[in-house]
Amino acid sequence: MAIAIRPATSEDLDPAQRLVERGILDLRARHGVGLPLALGPPDFQRPCLEEDPSGLWVGEAEGTVRGFGFSWMCERFWFLAQLFVEPGEQGSGLGRTLLSRTMEQARRRGAENLALITFAYNRVSTGLYIRHGMFPREPIYLMAAPAGAVGLPEPAPDLDAVPAESSWMRQIDEAVLGFGRDRHHAMLLAGGETALGFARGGRIVGYAYVSTITGHVGPAAILPGEDVAGVLRRALRVALSGGAKSASIFVPGRCGPGLSAMTEAGLRIEEPFVLLAARPFGIWDNYVPADPGYM
Fold it and tell me: Fold for domain 4-111?
């Protein structure tokens, strides 16, 4: 069966998202990871496609999407958000071809660094990324718990939650990640996500996105030298204030205060991931990704 590689269109995004779901479930099943999966609609992919379609590609055969590659860029930073092929197509070379097409975006726009987050147990894909110059840099752990199992201390009285503002979210991103994400924040906020800022003594020290529907926290960024654990505990408290049935967060291995705070709150490691990059970047003691695709 011949597979044609072509740029993705808006009509491809929903079937591509279903392909991603099948790919994740198949990968988890083969590695004995029995976690449920509930991916939402492609609300992040759609504006990225409108902004720069060179980062989204599909492999198609007989009118069916058989593979999907999706990358985005902020300034000179390139990130591979999704690369999945239909279960049963592994080893066909489709993944390598889609990766090469998405990496054309990085070359065309002069990327200075390349990165992605993938499942730590996905050895085949990790080898593929290493061959393309991206190397394991940071473990990241998905932590979760039923809401009823979460226990949080009273928040520090001097740590205030305030509405987030894009101007200082950019300043925090530049300090923690090394680049701004103005457009991505606009996408999240336009999609109904809730962003909070955290201030101590009137000074903004960080921000966090929280979902009172799902109980998820992230992305979150806290300035160096500030109370990472306190911000994450406060954000988790807000996320659970709307009656969510569970809590979840991605915490980097380097973020000791965050891992300790979430463990003490009752969250447990559900799944291991790994950040790969062409060269080190960011202060991972102070950043919590939203998920592997958004970072």
Answer: Aminopeptidase (3.40.630)
- Counted residue by residue, the chain has a size of 295
Task: State how far the Cα of 9 lies from the Cα of 65, in Å rounded to an integer.
Answer: 11
Q: CA–CA separation, 176 vs 135, rounded Å?
A: 20
Residues of the chain with CATH 3.40.630.90: 144-273+283-288
For the chain, how far is it from start to end, CA to CA, in angstroms? 35
Q: What own/partner pairs with CB < 8 Å and gap ≥ 24 does 85-94 have? A: 85/19, 85/23, 85/59, 86/19, 86/22, 86/23, 87/22, 87/23, 87/26, 89/3, 90/124, 92/3, 94/3, 94/59, 94/66, 94/67
Query: From CA 191, how far away is CA 44, in angstroms rounded?
Result: 9
pTM over 0.90? The answer is yes
Tens digits of pLDDT across the chain (295 residues): 688 999 999 999 999 999 999 999 999 999 999 888 878 899 999 999 999 999 999 999 988 999 999 999 999 999 999 999 999 777 678 999 999 999 999 999 999 999 999 999 999 999 999 999 999 999 999 999 999 999 999 888 899 999 998 889 999 999 999 999 999 999 999 888 899 999 999 999 999 999 999 999 999 999 999 999 999 999 999 999 999 999 999 999 999 999 999 999 999 999 999 999 999 999 999 999 999 999 9
How is residue 121 written in tokens? 């147990």
Domain 144-273+283-288 indexed as CATH 3.40.630.90:
yes
**Which two tokens mark 283?**
């202060």
Tokens representing residue 277 in the block = 């990059």
Alpha helices in the chain (DSSP H): 13-30, 45-51, 94-108, 123-131, 166-176, 182-190, 228-239, 256-264
Instruction: Determine the Cα–Cα distance for residues 3 and 58; give it in Å rounded to an integer.
Output: 10
